[in-house]
Amino acid sequence: MLSLNYSAIFLLLVGAITLCHASNGDRTQFFHNCRQNCERTNCSADGLEIQEQAVNFYKQSIFDQIFQWSCADECQYGCMWRTVAAFAERAWPIPQFYGKWPFLRMLGMQEPASVIFSMLNFIMHFRMLRKFRREVRPDSPCYMLAHIFGVTCLNGWIWSSIFHTRDFPLTELLDYAFAYSIVLCTFYCMVMRMLHRYSLFLRGVITLAIVSYYINYFAYLSVGKFNYSFNMKVNIATGVLSALGWFIWCHRVRTRRPYFRRILRFYILFALAMSLELLDFPPICWILDAHALWHFATVPLVSLYYNFMIEDCRTLRKEKVLSGGYSSYFNKDI
């Protein structure tokens, strides 16, 4: 139950705040006062936060302690739900807090569905990379390219799991930075696949340029305030370039490489899955939101990409063997 004091403050101030277009829950005076009073009452008497009080007062589980839910974090979490309840009592739209919907914490995880689906993506990449290594010989063209892609994706999904478990500035930075590394890696793989018959020097120069670009972009994200809209535009632009390159390749080889349909199908389905991010609705049962669904939708698409790489590498090796080596192999089309 809300206290009379909180209700009075809420009724007097939330209307004015709404008129100022500050509809997010964390901007309401109700939430602000609730959090201040909670921290002052439960966290410390002298202004210093004491972690032991969070354990004792909030009856934290071992998972909450492992993931470092402090007393102030517990106050923020509790006040978030009090604010949600106040909005619901007045039939107002469910508010967001610090740019996020309210999620039900499970086993210490802030966004349990996104964590689980990120881990599923990691497992799928790990299994498909092992399948690639079983079915493709190490001397096949583009063999190492698949490993670069696989390792990059494994690293990205690890940090996605960590970020959705606990949202700190550092975990947020690493999640966004390594998520972009996956997008950039797909572009890199596309370029290297088109140029795999060209000189090692040319491929080395392009690799160095892309790595240097990524290092600079990582440094840009690390300095100053994080620009979400710019980062999204960069991701979309890189993804579109990658898809465009593969679409051109598919058109050129459509009569000679029937397995082109796999990479074409992958990008079409990936674009449809990404459209889930355009949806924005409160989490179902306070757990499943549009972002979690986007992570879930990418799980079955992983096999499409790896199966394409397996078939492509095996085909390129057969062509290499039949041509008697690279001397005539270089003269073939892509």
Helices and strands in order, then pairings?
Elements: H1 4-19, H2 29-43, H3 51-58, H4 62-66, H5 71-89, H6 112-135, H7 143-165, H8 169-194, H9 200-222, H10 228-253, H11 260-274, H12 290-298, H13 302-322, H14 326-329
Helix pairs in contact: 1-2, 2-5, 6-7, 6-12, 6-13, 7-8, 8-9, 8-10, 10-11, 11-13
Give an overview in words.
GO terms for molecular function: hydrolase activity, acting on ester bonds. With 334 residues, the protein is an all-alpha fold. It has 2 domains: 79 residues, no CATH class; 211 residues, Up-down Bundle (Rhopdopsin 7-helix transmembrane proteins), CATH 1.20.1070.10. The protein is 70% helix and 0% strand. The longest helix is centred in the middle third of the chain and has 26 residues. It is elongated and about 80 Å long. The N and C termini lie far apart (68 Å). The relative contact order is 0.09.
Number of domains: 2
- Estimate the mean pLDDT confidence: 85
Terminal Cα span: 68 Å
Task: Specify the CATH architecture of the largest domain.
Answer: Up-down Bundle
Largest sheet, strands/sense/barrel: none
Number of helices: 14
Keywords:
334 residues, mainly alpha, Rhopdopsin 7-helix transmembrane proteins, 2 domains, 70% helix, elongated, disordered N terminus, signal, transmembrane, membrane, Post-GPI attachment to proteins factor 3, transmembrane helix
